């Protein structure tokens, strides 16, 4: 891999991580501004918005990037520019259509979402319509980002993502605070301003991209002068190729929001049927906003690391190199488990102080987070197995596995909520994901002829190390709670820091002692150790 591509991949990954970290930590002040009801309203808007934005952009950045890279390698630069000009118009139409659809459906979505005397259907309609305006710009931005990425220029995407997130979060926090504390506005007005921040953030991101376009257009025009001009591909053939490549990204991208949407549509009715209608809004906010934000943390980092292996998986499969393919698959599955399992076990163990630290002390929040945290492993494995299916050219099964998982979730959600209340929705999600992942793994085994023996053996070792970590951190937690309370912010912080340090020390000591970490990461470990000036 060239140094330019490595640098670009690093920049894009760094930008994504910064954006996700910002997107996580703003929930602390936001929660303290709008409270649990505000969080519920916010999630009512963002779940359908996420689905619509995934459909509107349709995996465009990745698809456009691959298409343009392909023809740039052939020195057919005009092909990519032709697609870009046409795609801008298509994405503009896609954004307008998505905006009009979500804006029109807002009353229906709000009506079937959890509501009570404090969170009405009218409130839900208002916040959903406020966020829908962002759909006018985001698809447009995705086209520009894909164009730059196709030229191996990752800086515009990374910087625009960070700028978009910073502007959005600033507007979310300041807007909601001003409406509630200086304008004496209602909760729905404050949250509407917060959701409208997605549009303001998109303006910031788009301005950043346009600035990059202005700065780099002379260079891009120079490439056109070097165009060979031997390829004349119609727009129809262009879009056909892009749709084939982008479709799997759409289904993978909307998987989690679709599971959340099922909760949004069924949760209130199920809770009402067991006499808990008054708790539905608060419980839904805890389920699909508060705890979900925390559960996604280990998923994002571990998945990002594992997905870097997918290009080499694709290359090995195309070359028919069975040995290398099995080695890459082994590494992908093991790295994912190695990074995710201890993180989710720790999150579950420290659920009470972590929830207190981010929000407030809440028994329901603690219980939901404790059972929800392990589901993060399933989120991560679905994303990675779906990516592997694309790498071995069997992405059609991603659609099948997702539909099966969603059908199971839809079938079990109401019965399990009636049986287990809020935790029932988590269990239904877990069962749905297990079914989807099982299908993906069976397809990988069949078409890649992949043996799972090594992964199972190493997996048992990782589970054993995690068990020792759990015991050590658990004992430490029990001792510390004799004189520290997980119900107060500062003491919860101390508990989390000390217990996490003890658990991580045990886990990584065992990993280095058995050289497991070297089997998984190879020579990278020594380079990291030298940079950190550590010796084990």
From TrEMBL:
Entry keywords, A to Z: Cell membrane, Membrane, Transmembrane, Transmembrane helix
Keyword Transport: no
Subcellular location: Cell membrane
Residue ranges crossing the lipid bilayer per the database entry: 12-34, 46-68, 89-110, 130-148, 169-187, 193-214, 242-262, 294-314, 335-359, 371-392, 399-417, 423-443, 455-480, 492-510
Keyword Cell cycle among record annotations: no
Membrane topology: Multi-pass membrane protein
Family annotation (Pfam families): Polysacc_synt
Domain of life where this protein originates: Bacteria
InterPro entries xrefs: PG_synth_SpoVB, Poly_Biosynth_Transport, Polysacc_synth
PANTHER family, per the entry: LIPID II FLIPPASE MURJ, PST FAMILY PREDICTED COLANIC ACID TRANSPORTER
Protein name: O-antigen/teichoic acid export membrane protein
Organism: Cytobacillus eiseniae
